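Handoff note, outgoing to incoming analyst
You'll be picking up this chain. Sequence as last confirmed:
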Amino acid sequence: MHDAELPPKLIPSVRSLVSTAVALAHTRLALAGIELEEEMQRLITAAALGFASLILVLLALVVGTFTIVAAAPEEHRVATMLAITVVYLIIAIVLVLRLKAIFTNRPAIFSGTLAELEKDKETLSQMTKAHEAAEAEAEFERQRVREERSSRTARQGAN
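Most recent structure output, in case you need it:
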């Protein structure tokens, strides 16, 4: 293309497009940062609560187990300890399954950011298609004007 063929608003349009792209990137990065911070807070909270719960449950289990075993008749103490062990194992399995469910049911990391980027991609695709259609229409109009001029010139030359 020659400089004379460039649309007069090309440079401001490019600047506007770059400015919009930078603003979109900034917004998406900010959203990603917020999501990452939320995920970190969720993980830290879960770890702290899990650790505190673990300590307290262990203390309660030790004291409770000794109390039950001490209260049981001497001939049933072994059976009592076996029964308590089975109960502890069942509870531990239930808790592990619950913990697994917490991490498998959480939202995917950066899901909000990825959804917004997908919307941006679709919008840019639509804008590109609209721009291409407008360019094709403008080219068609320019071609029509050229043909009109050449036919006028041909008619004037014939006269």
